[in-house]
């Protein structure tokens, strides 16, 4: 079966998640796309950087800002393997990202539909479009496998 464009970009985000897993980080990956081209990639790197803000989305947003020499990412779409948290949704909002595509829900910290809905906040001047469930099974599996292996190693 041929992948659609959104599955293609999410598969790149999944490769970023694998990089995080190899570093013993929670495997979450992200890519930012402009004009159907990946302009930045990021993966979870909190443990290695000892930085709470080193989520995959934050890493990708920083790189995209640098690449475009602009804090605004107006014509950009973000693909992330798991539903963004409130911190990442704040950065997505602040950077004016056009569309967020995510893989699996995050029942413990997701800020789009699981724990709370960032889009329900009133009076914001920008609301990104959101599409969930892109390669949901694959995105869910990489996280579940990571934590399953962590429990086995204990």
Explain this structure.
This protein has 154 residues and is of the alpha/beta class. The chain contains five helices and five strands. The chain has helices at residues 5-22, 46-49, 56-68, 86-95, 136-153, and strands spanning 29-34, 37-43, 76-82, 99-104, 129-131. Strands 2-1-3-4-5 form a five-stranded mixed sheet. Helix 1 (5-22) runs parallel beside helix 5. The relative contact order is 0.16. The model has no long low-confidence stretch (mean pLDDT 95).
In short:
The protein has 154 residues and is an alpha/beta fold.
Topology:
Elements lengths: L4 H18 L6 E6 L2 E7 L2 H4 L6 H13 L7 E7 L3 H10 L3 E6 L24 E3 L4 H18 L1
Parallel strand pairs: 3-4, 4-5
Antiparallel strand pairs: 1-2, 1-3
User: What profile does the largest beta sheet have?
Assistant: 5 strands, mixed
- Proportion of residues in helical segments: 40-55%
**Helix-and-strand structural type:** alpha/beta
Q: Quickly count the helices.
A: 5
Low-pLDDT windows of residues = none
Q: Please give the number of β-strands.
A: 5
Query: Looking across the biggest beta sheet, what order are the strands in?
Result: 2-1-3-4-5
Terminal Cα separation, in Å? 39 Å
